[in-house]
Specification:
By secondary structure, the protein is an alpha/beta fold. Helix content is 24%, strand content 17%. The strands form 6 sheets. Strands 7-6-5-4-12-1-13-14-2-15 form a 10-stranded mixed sheet, with helices on both faces. A 4-stranded antiparallel sheet has the order 17-18-19-22, covered by helices on one side. The protein has a two-stranded parallel ribbon with strand order 3-16. Strand 6 and strand 7 form a beta hairpin. Helix 5 packs parallel to helix 6. The termini are far apart.
């Protein structure tokens, strides 16, 4: 019996040791950060030393993509492993939208839970809340992130330019006051609070004409949508980065002895760009540049905490963005007038909302000291839709038949073990595109070629577009007329992929 007990204890302790060796995973998901916004990706007018250091400690990918050129669909794909264009209602959501991931659905977070991980979401959510009935913001708000795999969630519901401007922690609004109930409406004004349209003299940041950022004023900034109540619960823009970073660090500290997944969804550098006072004016690129510095500071604090906790070598850190860049996205904040030669998309054409590469090709850095070789660069074609299957492989999880239908295991490329990634990828930027090797086909579509409000080329064209990305990453020369057979084959393949129930 003593011998059996000894063997049992040895086996148990060995199992605990193996469990502790499972790597933590931190996904730092920035907002509207373009391919050319970081100094490690070629930016010269702004410096990002903490992200540069992260890149030097791991791999910097040059062909990493979101699925989509806007935020809600990209976030949906990352968590579900499904292309968002397969599901109706995955466009950019208002702040009072119903949750678009049904509770109990398999997600990246729930899969990591099943693998024994503690899971946390801190930052921007923007995937809807509730079951479709009007949201009562004054009681527990369910379903939300907790119902799709997150043990802990601290977030704001949509974007910083949309009401309600409140923090939610595990379904409850921080600072809620039953004597000052919150009401939110996206169809008509509620309450008597001043709006940017009616009271522009109260604004500390003016909204751009025609973009809808002139409804209820919060913290001197007009928002999209109307709200009343919740005066004590409303955050100020200058505190958001601090609050999110502190909560992320608290989650890391609380779970230092367990394997954890942390989705740290930064608000930077989405509008309204109103960084903390410590960063204002530091970049010489307006508030957008200042917000880049603030974002880099947040990354530095996360990495400092990992080192302090002794977890750096047992943690995979991934940094990326939900879509490409935009300068004027609703506010007059100096991003245009103080651009000073900075090119947010680097050599790429287009940006946020666009079918061109600038819409979906984004910074993508992976660090795992001791496992991922430091200082590497990879041109492997990879997508955020593949994180689900890749981490399932890493943690030894078998994907159910109905889970992550468009997610492919990219672990060898992810860890720098193979130079190749995907052989093809579908991209969504208004029009759908198909990338096969070095070729990119953009489907014909009607609509303006230039989105005047944001001054970004849409990628719309009534004729097919075909680009050789290896020779022409800036998509300057449409080769469709020279290669009609290639256009026909890629159009047929895209149709096949659209009609397939899964591509894994």
């Amino acid at each position: 019996m003593k011998r059996l007990l000894f063997m049992f204890l040895c086996g148990t302790l060995a199992g605990d040791a193996i469990a502790q060796q499972r790597p933590n995973v931190i996904i730092i998901y920035a907002d509207d950060v373009g391919y050319g916004d970081l100094s490690c990706y070629g930016a010269t007018q702004v410096q990002t030393p903490n992200l540069d250091a992260l890149a030097k400690s791991g791999i910097r990918f040059t062909n990493g993509h979101t699925t989509s050129a806007t935020c809600t669909p990209s976030r949906y794909a990352l968590l579900t492993g499904q292309y968002p264009w397969r599901k109706k209602g995955t466009g950019v959501l208002p702040g009072n939208a119903a949750m678009i991931i049904p509770p109990g659905s398999p997600t990246l977070a729930s899969m990591m839970q099943q693998a024994g991980y503690q899971t946390g979401l801190v930052g921007k959510w923007h995937l809807g809340l509730g079951d479709g009935s009007p949201i009562n913001w004054n009681t527990a708000i369910k379903p939300g992130p907790n119902e799709v795999g997150f043990n802990y969630a601290f977030f704001f519901p949509a974007t910083a330019d949309r009401v309600p401007t409140v923090f939610v922690e595990n379904g409850s609004i921080i600072g809620a006051d039953p004597n000052d109930p919150i009401e939110v409406n996206y169809q008509a004004k509620v309450g008597n609070e001043p709006t940017g349209k009616e009271n522009p003299e109260l604004l500390k940041m003016q909204s751009s004409p025609g973009q809808g950022h002139n409804n209820t004023i919060v913290n001197g900034i007009g928002r999209i949508g109307w709200m009343k109540g919740g005066s004590r619960a409303r955050w100020t823009d200058e505190e958001v980065a601090y609050a999110f970073t502190d909560k992320a660090i608290e989650f890391m500290e609380a779970n230092r002895k367990k394997p954890f997944l942390l989705c740290f969804n930064l608000s930077d550098i989405h509008v309204p760009r109103m960084p903390a006072t410590a960063f204002k004016g530091k970049s010489k690129l307006g508030y957008r540049g200042d917000a880049i510095l603030q974002m880099d500071w947040s990354v530095g604090r996360i990495m400092d905490k990992l080192r302090q906790l002794g977890l750096e070598k047992n943690t995979i850190v991934l940094f990326s963005s939900d879509n490409g860049p935009v300068l004027d996205d609703g506010y007059v904040d100096g991003a245009v007038t103080q651009q000073n030669g900075h090119q947010p998309a680097g050599p790429l054409r287009g940006g946020k909302y666009s079918a061109f590469e600038g819409g979906t090709r984004v910074p993508w850095i992976v660090s795992w000291p001791g496992t991922v070789k430091a200082g590497g660069t990879s041109d492997a074609l990879i997508s955020q839709v593949d994180l689900y299957a890749t981490f399932a492989k890493l943690t030894g999880q078998k994907l159910p038949e109905n889970a992550a239908p468009d997610s492919h295991d990219m672990l060898p490329a992810f860890l720098g073990k193979k130079p190749e990634g995907r052989s093809w990828l579908v991209l969504q930027g208004g029009s759908l595109s198909l990338v096969q090797g070095n070729w990119k086909y953009i489907t014909p579509s009607k609509g303006a070629k230039l989105m005047k409000e944001v001054n970004i080329e849409s990628g719309n064209d009534e004729v097919p577009q075909l680009y050789d990305l290896r020779a022409d990453v800036g998509e300057k020369q449409n080769l469709a007329a020279q290669h009609p057979e290639k256009v026909k084959a890629m159009a047929e393949e895209l149709d096949r992929l659209k009609n397939a129930s899964q591509t894994r």
